[in-house]
Predict the structure.
Amino acid sequence: MVHAYVYDAVRTPFGRYGGGLAAVRPDDLAAFVVAEQVRRAPGLDPSRIDDVILGNANGAGEDNRNVARMAVLLAGLPVTVPGVTVNRLCGSSVEAAVQAARAVESGDADVVVAGGVESMSRAPWVLPKPERPFPAGDAALVSTTLGWRLVNARMRPEWTVSLGEATERLREKFGVTRVRQDEFALRSHRLAHAAWEDGRYDDLVAPHPDSELRRDEPIRPDGTLEKLASLKPSFRADGGTITAGNASPLTDGASAALIGSAAAAGDIGLEPLARIAGRASVANEPQYFGYAPVEAAERALSRSGIGWDDVGAVELNEAFAAQSLVCVDAWGVDLEIVNAWGGATALGHPLGASGTRVLGTLARRLVAENQRWGVAAICIGVGQGMAVVLENVRAAA
């Protein structure tokens, strides 16, 4: 059987909404990480790239019309390199990586650049076309930044609640307190800051030349539990526990990973970091989307032939602290192995880019910590989850 490997990963620093990357178009962000990923492979002839697969959740503005193909052209790659854009909302770049792995395993490709991009700052307002010409009434602009828009009236109301309200329902169901959420968020910020200070992200992050941003902008190294406790609930005025401090912020950024076969190592000029050993996509009730990574990880582990006792590192995208805690509790893993370099609560969550952010971080963590097995998982709006199991090639030798 042909196996697929992660050879490298790179991303931009993640910028706050309206912050350090807001002036950069999403197609330019995507082009930058694609070009940077190719540049970092010293032996790779760009014409040998079989495909570029990018995830993107919104796709309503400058990232429209197949941002992957636009990135190929803007990055200066040969026009013979194809590109395709996929959308599984927050899991879009995990989906891109999974599709790349399948192409390699099936023999359809040897080298694929997978990744994703999102500029939540530049997501436009949209105006639906009228059903008939010259309507007499007013029309409202709809934001495409996050969440439901132009909702079909046939959808069940409980399915279309906001992501925040859905997470409030999830934490009620599993009894996750405000204190635990704030403690988890504070941990994320402190670990992210420490990881930057320790140089953990030096090989993972490349600044965009049109921005002065050098580190992930949302990190608050001076945060305290007292400050977090003082924040008002964002989604429920009465009895709510989810705040701007214990949820991932709106963010801009792009990420990429180089995925190839073992035979491609000579052409790439790098040794692989990790083997893609298993993966899974699952679905559940839309309002409990935050719980979907639980089953996704279980299935991915089963398909890899291992169990949680074998896992030494977990990268779980922190859409909300409450959702993350529910998943960690369900898996029964030690919190110490989860997001040891910080998570999305601190780093940010640019929807289409977060999947290869967690995948690339996991690959680097496995090497740095000399762990053999790791799990990358992500929740996805409208009730889905994805997970990928990586095996550290060096630890397995």
Notes: The mean pLDDT is 97. The radius of gyration is 20 Å.
